[in-house]
Specification:
- The complex is a heterodimer.
- Chain A is of the alpha/beta class.
- Chain A has helices at about 50-60, 95-110, 115-125, 145-155, 175-190, 200-205, 245-265, 295-304, and strands at about 5-15, 25-35, 40-45, 65-70, 75, 80-85, 160-165, 195, 210-215, 220-225, 280.
- In chain A, the strands form two sheets. Chain A has a seven-stranded mixed sheet, sandwiched between helices. In chain A, strands 2-1-4-5 form a four-stranded antiparallel sheet, covered by helices on one side.
- Chain A starts with 5 loop residues before the first strand and ends with a helix.
- By secondary structure, chain B is mostly helical.
- Chain B folds into two domains: about 1-55; about 60-275, MetI-like (MetI-like fold, Orthogonal Bundle).
- A two-stranded antiparallel sheet of chain B has the order 1-2.
- In chain B, helix 9 runs parallel beside helix 10 (about 235-245) and helix 10 (about 235-245) packs antiparallel against helix 11.
- Classes of the chains: A alpha/beta, B mainly alpha.
- The interface of A and B includes residues 58, 80 and 90 of A.
């Protein structure tokens, strides 16, 4: 697996203490990596620090310990290389749809003007199916349309990586499905690398190649990484006909319902934060491999 | 529904006006003085009039003055006899000068205070101390240091316009949505571009509220300031007509002050609508 486009090493985040005693870290010792063109989802209950991890990847927040390396460089602040789709869409309400996209495009290519600027912006308006609404203000749009503008804005700067913070959480099921399909299509065409937070198990299975499962916070850790064994050309309309879909889904739901809590209280024996177990639900080695790493190697790894 | 409500309100307003004018008319009716009690010689000395005249004008007298003043608003017959347009012009010029200076000072400073919690805390004690001071209390200090009456009036307008604009700008800037600032950050926008393209439009409605309050206060204060410094302006006009015992002109000036204040407020109301956005 070519998982070296983005590497997260030993990430931990503690928020400042209030009234003396230092609170525990939200999450601790997080290691994972994402390959170029890969779509990775992160799932976990509220409070496990998913959004904080995403903000650190975006450069909007600083880790208390650990580093994020993208494309061979350490992430030290926000960058046009990483486009962010915010949970609350974060459109500028005084600008029209087109102007919101133009706002981002001008930041990326300050020297563009006239025809090239117009055609580039219009391309991304069309991409998310908003032609006809490009001159409306965000207040005149439905929630789904606003989120599409947010996605178009993030795509329009052609970032190396896309970060999505629960982008479809506030949408109704029908709209969500439509936009998921659009995102899938765009990613298939552009080979975009994506990191995404979601609460929706089906969304994770539909969109991602791998799913990171977080234990409950505080001191959340990566419990395991589920490899999506469904074929990459999966579609929302027929995904549920594949029996493999239910095995993955059951595994994820089971994790969210009970294992995320149990693992937070009692970490799996011989778990190694640097190499969280990779599981392929429904295939031969179904459960997290208990003996993939001998316990005695652990201290040496932590010293390294 | 809305139209019929507007119509009813208009009818009621006109009714209220009629009642007020009628009450005024009743109150200023000439009253016959009891002839028996008056000394005939005294009456003869006073012009032989048996009817005591109230100092207050009747509605009809007022209407005549109103028409006469507005027919020639810009005449200038020397220092103590100028048209109402000229006097209002002086006052408006002072208000605009003081207000503009205050805006040029308060809005950038408000930006700094809004963007930097450190500066906000450092400046706050002074702002809280200076804000409740009546602007007219600065007048003697202004007259002593500036030594020019008209400039002192402008200074007083400056001081009183400062605070609402300063605190509203600081608040508007400090409460810009975190998400919008994060958008600017992820787009690697410079501080300047962020301030102009994100923070300014986001805070503009709050800043305009501050400007509107400042303008209202400035128009209140200019009348009092001009009564003190004298020479020109609507405040001086009111004081001068009091000394002339022309309550008709005083009343006329009072009405004009109200109308101009209303107009200024309408202008800022219009500007507010221009920068408003619906989130």
């Amino acid at each position: 697996m070519s998982s070296d486009f983005l590497t997260v090493e030993g990430l931990s985040r503690t928020f400042p203490a209030r009234r003396g005693e230092a609170p525990p870290a939200v999450f601790d010792d997080i290691y994972f990596s994402i390959g170029k063109g890969e779509v990775v989802c992160i799932i976990g209950h509220s409070g496990c620090g998913k959004s904080t991890i995403l903000n650190i990847l975006a450069g909007l927040d600083q880790p208390s310990a650990g580093v994020v390396i993208m494309d061979g460089r350490e992430v030290v602040g926000p960058s046009l290389d990483r486009g962010v789709v915010f949970q609350g869409h974060a459109l500028l309400p005084w600008l029209s749809v087109r102007k919101n996209i133009e706002f981002a495009v001008r930041s990326r290519w300050p020297n563009w003007s006239g025809a090239i600027l117009d055609s580039h912006c219009q391309r991304f308006v069309d991409l998310v199916g908003l032609n006809g609404s490009e001159h409306k203000n965000p207040s005149a749009l439905s929630g789904g349309m606003k989120q599409r503008v947010g996605i178009a804005r993030a795509f329009s700067i052609q970032p190396k990586m896309l970060l999505l913070d629960e982008p479809f959480g506030a949408l109704d099921a029908l709209t969500r499905g439509t936009i998921q399909d659009e995102l899938l299509k765009i990613c298939a065409v552009t080979g975009q690398t994506v990191f995404m937070i979601t609460h929706d198990v089906d969304e994770a299975i539909l969109l991602s190649d791998r799913i990171i499962l977080m234990t409950n916070g505080p001191r959340a850790r990566i419990a395991e990484i589920v490899i999506n064994t469904l074929p990459r050309n999966r579609a929302r309309s027929d995904m549920h006909k594949n029996p493999q879909y239910y095995r993955i889904r059951n595994h994820l739901v089971d994790f969210l319902v009970s294992r995320s809590r149990d693992l937070a209280l009692a970490p799996a024996r011989d778990s190694d934060p640097r190499h969280p177990p990779q599981v392929r639900p429904g295939e031969a080695n179904d459960e997290p491999p208990a003996d993939s790493l001998p316990a005695k190697k652990q201290p040496a790894l932590q010293l390294a | 529904m809305a139209r019929s409500l507007d119509f009813k309100a208009l009818i009621l307003s006109l009714g209220l006006l009629a009642v007020l004018v009628f009450a005024w008319y009743q109150a200023t009716l000439p009253q016959a003085t009891p002839a028996a009690s008056a000394n005939p010689e005294y009456t003869a000395l006073m012009g032989g009039n048996s009817v005591a005249k109230s100092g207050m004008p009747t509605p009809a007298e007022f209407a005549r003055t109103f028409r006469r003043q507005l027919a020639h608003p810009f005449y200038d017959h020397g220092p103590n006899d100028k048209g109402i347009g000229i006097e209002l012009g002086y006052s408006l010029a002072r208000v605009l000068a003081g207000f503009t200076l205050a805006a040029l000072f308060a809005i950038p400073l408000g930006f700094v205070l809004g963007m930097s919690p450190l500066m906000q805390r450092a400046f706050n004690p002074y702002i809280q101390l200076l804000k409740p001071i009546s602007p007219l209390a600065w007048m003697p200090l202004a007259l002593y240091t500036i030594k020019d009456a008209s400039a002192s009036a402008i200074f007083v307008i400056f001081i009183c316009s400062l605070w609402p604009m300063l605190s509203n700008t600081a608040r508007g800037v400090a409460t810009v949505k975190r998400d919008w600032l994060n958008v600017a950050k992820t787009l690697e926008m410079s501080v300047w571009r962020t301030a102009l393209r994100v923070i300014l439009p986001a805070a503009a409605p709050t800043i305009l509220i501050g400007m509107r309050i400042s303008m209202g206060i400035a128009w209140l204060v200019i009348v009092a300031a001009e009564m003190l410094v004298g020479g020109t302006g609507i405040g001086y006009f009111v004081w001068n007509e009091w000394n002339n015992l022309s309550l008709t002109n005083v009343l006329f000036a009072v009405l004009m002050i109200g109308l101009v204040g209303l107009l200024l407020d309408l202008i800022f109301g219009g500007l507010s609508r221009l920068v408003a956005y619906e989130d």
